[in-house]
Amino acid sequence: MESLHKEIGTAKDNRTSPVHDWYRFTAGFSYKLVEKIIEEETLGAADRIYESFAGCGTTLVSAQKKGISAIGHEGQELLFDVINAKLNWEVEANHVSDVITHIKSRLIGQAERLPYHELLKTLYSAGDLYELYVIKDYLENEVTNENTYLFLKLALTQTLHKVSIHPIAVPYISRSKTLSSTLSAAEMFEKTVNKMIDDLKGIENKQRTSEIFLHDSRLLNAAIPDNHCTICITSPPYLNNLDYGEVSKVCSHFYGITDSWNDVTEKVRKKLVTGATTHYKKSDFSLDEWKKGIFYENNKVVLDGIMPNILAIGEESKKRKGKKSFDILSLYYFEDMYKVLLEMRRILRPGSKAYLVLGDSAPYGVYLDTIAILGQIACRLGFNNYRIVPIRVRGTKWMSLKYRHNLQLSESILIIE
Length: 417
Description:
The chain is of the alpha/beta class. About 40% of the residues lie in helices and about 10% in strands.
């Protein structure tokens, strides 16, 4: 672990790796890290990897490419389908080609398709929006083979990113930047499908070894037995880094999973670890009541140690224009991660390790050693020990901005045993 390149905690390597690049997301991590852990831990057919936050499927795809069993949780319906498509290598190219031909015929002479989601009207040309919805309707109503449907749905999801007028996941909609594509949505969809078919050449006959559950990693999954896995490789949400529900809202609105900000909160955010202030109502929180919970009772030493910083964040928020409750966010985040670690410990066999790619944080300029705090919480739960392997310095690009703090943050791997 000491020889990792500094970008291994990012998804940059995945952009040039077949299957891994079928869905690009800024918050991912490198497949090379998974491969390195598999090599260093000499994992084989007798092992099974657990992934608490499957995300784009990096760990599960990497394991399957190596012929190793893996099992994961993902709370977002959109990404659950993305992962299943990335793990589905038994796709009939001829069947896919027939579907493309039928879609082309549907695009000829069709009347305008209504209604379109209001947000999407601002992100796509009228012609592209029409084609995107025609393709979506065809896939949902005419494609009955589940494997083919998920494969083509993922191609369509990629197309949503490639033909938008503005970048839609960098990590949020960036209206200050304008994209231009020489291909129409239908042309980009076909090009994407053909590229995915090419990527499967040579691996299409490999056995599926990875399984994904649409499940909140904070909760017990009765379908996974105790002591089921030999290792965990994952990257949890970073404290106050991304609102994953917000980031994926364009695609979730397009597919009808959500329709509004309230939908994102109720249908997406509530199934995810609390990582942003949009996940809860500040008025619902009482520190005295929160301290009566089992998390505080079981982690009093750790939490009392960081409470001065938590209170300092709360005081600082009163001076700031946004008055964001990063103090409450931090407590909810650690409580949620406690639940994640509890389920992780149940699933892992005695003597096993968990590798977590994580970043530290400094809400309103008050430093929280997030990685070490989670290591301490893990030990309170029954893990034996932890160590931290630094990867890179991050956050330096914000240092020149007056409204941001100037603390240097880091990204590391937390290894708990």
